[in-house]
Amino acid sequence: RRQRQRFVDKNGRCNVQHGNLGGESSRYLSDLFTTLVDLKWRWNLLIFLLTYTVAWLVMASMWWGIAYLRGDLHQAHDETYSPCVANVYNFPSAFLFFIETEATIGYGHRYITERCPEGIVLFLFQSLLGSVVDAFLIGCMFIKMSQPKKRAETLMFSRAAVVSQRDGKLCLMFRVGNLRNSHMVSAQIRCKLIKSRQTPEGEFLPLDQCELDVGFGTGADQLFLVSPLTICHEIDSRSPFFGLSKRSLGSEQFEIVVILEGIVETTGMTCQARTSYTEDEVLWGHRFLPVMSLEDGFFRVDYSQFHDTFEVPTPPYSVKE
């Protein structure tokens, strides 16, 4: 098989990288929350730890600074002296007071006295800042953990697409399946043909996208995905494969991108699974093996034959011919 660069990998990852953004890179900071959610887990965890560590050290230093400027560190053991924060003797004790306040632990050993207005202001600032940081970072981690990307891994596509006759018409077909018992609500499938072409005006389009009809008019693109389904694209005069024959298939260069979208039944979030088929992964004159069998009171799906095909008599000519 010829190995070439794919636009979309078999696992659905798009092989597109954005470079030389220049001043446009500032747009990522304008939507910082989405930027953090899109980062990989290792960077999310690093930012999570660094943000809390730096915030804790800075706030603890501010409490220690107030105690140092007031002279509380030298007179904290004097029972007749009223410090800003009781029982704060050094930086570790100031850090412990900050943690007790931030985490609302409240051991009762360290507390703010009423003779410290700057401490009261700092306490209010710490409470507001802590609420904002917690809402931002914990919300980011929650959204990232609840993303339905892992659900897409249990949606299966056949490794190859086939071209054969169905109901007397030449069709391009591939198979999709759902490995989980939970359903995909309002599942819909779309196909894009990515192929370079040149316009009559001489303009070259390296990655021109063309829609493949998989049943928009008949509603066949709306899937009830409780068992493996074979998606069919009828090759007719409106199809971009109108002139495709078995012989020309070996000299063509195209990629079919398949996009399956639906709502995850358990979470209510939208999930999208993608894959692609290059011209080397389109088998002419093949059909998928059946995977459904009727047993005692239920239907069984044999996923061991999900990707298997067998040859069937198919004319080697294009629909145009």
From TrEMBL:
Name of a matching Pfam family: IRK_C
Domain Inward rectifier potassium channel C-terminal: 155-320
Entry-linked InterPro entries: Ig_E-set, IRK_C, K_chnl_inward-rec_Kir, K_chnl_inward-rec_Kir3.1, K_chnl_inward-rec_Kir_cyto, Kir_TM
Occurrences of domain Potassium channel inwardly rectifying transmembrane (ranges): 8-148
Membrane topology: Multi-pass membrane protein
Keywords tagged on the record: Ion channel, Ion transport, Membrane, Potassium, Potassium transport, Transmembrane, Transmembrane helix, Transport, Voltage-gated channel
GO cellular component terms, semicolon-separated: monoatomic ion channel complex; plasma membrane
Subcellular location: Membrane
Family: Belongs to the inward rectifier-type potassium channel (TC 1.A.2.1) family. KCNJ3 subfamily.
UniProt protein name: G protein-activated inward rectifier potassium channel 1
Organism lineage string: Eukaryota, Metazoa, Chordata, Craniata, Vertebrata
